[in-house]
Every structure is written in structure tokens, then in C-alpha cells.
Amino acid sequence: MALGAFNFNSFERDSYAIKQGGADTMKVNLSLKDSHVMIIESLKEKHSIASSEEIVCRYVTSALKHGDLESIFGTPREQCGAGCFDAEPRFEINVEDADYESLGRIYEDYAFQPYVTKDEEISKTIRCVLNFVEEEPGSILI
């Protein structure tokens, strides 16, 4: 489905909004596979950033501004290499409200495999971003 066909009204929240530093954010219990944790650790080292949350949020924001979302979220990226449902909750992150809404619409528009919770759906889109960053390291800059 073309990304321009977002359905803005169909994405319901079951995560909760919090106020942090004056900006609206959504708290997400991020589910990752071991391979994604390793990608995050590598990115933290590369950028000399101690916070996993900061690395994830910066790359998500940058990915959403990328000119070709199909290359990040399209079929080659959304297909699980192994153990689609092996991702486990790792840590909580506060995602900017606009990014959270965008990730939710992307999840719906790309018709990923169904998950039980919104946190799992958002986690799936974030795993796609991390896969893209690993496979195309120069394509997303923070």
C-alpha cells in the first residue's frame, strides 16, 4: 500500500501519553530480539551515546524523515528472518507523540503480521528501522 494513504483516524492508543519536558510523548515497552539489542549497542558505541532510548528515538525520528519509507518498511524489511514473535520486552522508551502516531500508521499501512498490543506493533516498526540501519548504515544519519 502506498504510504500516502494513511488512515489518521484508525490508530487507537493503548499506550499512555505522558508529559516530559513540555513535549507530548508516548511510553512504549520496546520488544526487541537479541540481534536488535546488539545493533543498538553498536550504535551507542559509534555515536558515544550511553542511552539506548536516545539512540532508538533519534534513529526513529531520522528514519521517519527519510525520503523512501518503502525501503525501510517494505516487504524485504518486514519479513522476519527467524522467530518473528521471539522479541521480548527490553526497556521502556518515550517516543514523541508525532513519531508514535506515524509508526502506528506505518504498521497499519504496511499490513505487518498481527500482534496483540500497540507496544508490540510499534516495536515491530522500530525493529524494521534497526534492520535498515544495520543493512544500510549510511542511509540514516542522526
Determine Rg (CA atoms, Å).
14 Å
**How far is the N terminus from the C terminus?**
28 Å
Cα shape: globular
Q: Helical element count?
A: 6
| Pattern of helices and strands | EEHHHHEHH
Helical content stands at: 40-55%
* Overall structural domain count: 1
Indicate the structural class.
alpha+beta
The proportion of residues in beta strands is 15-25%
Uncertain residue segments: 1-22
Number of E-type strands:
3
Give the biggest beta sheet. 3 strands, antiparallel
Q: Kindly state the mean pLDDT as a whole number?
A: 82
Strand order, sheet with most strands: 1-2-3
Protein architecture, described:
The protein is α+β, with helices and mostly antiparallel strands and 142 residues long. The protein has one domain. Helices cover 47% and strands 17% of the residues. The protein contains six helices and three strands, in the order ββααααβαα. It has helices at residues 34-47, 52-64, 69-73, 75-78, 97-109, 118-135, and strands at 16-20, 23-32, 88-96. It has a three-stranded antiparallel sheet with strand order 1-2-3. Strand 1 and strand 2 form a beta hairpin.
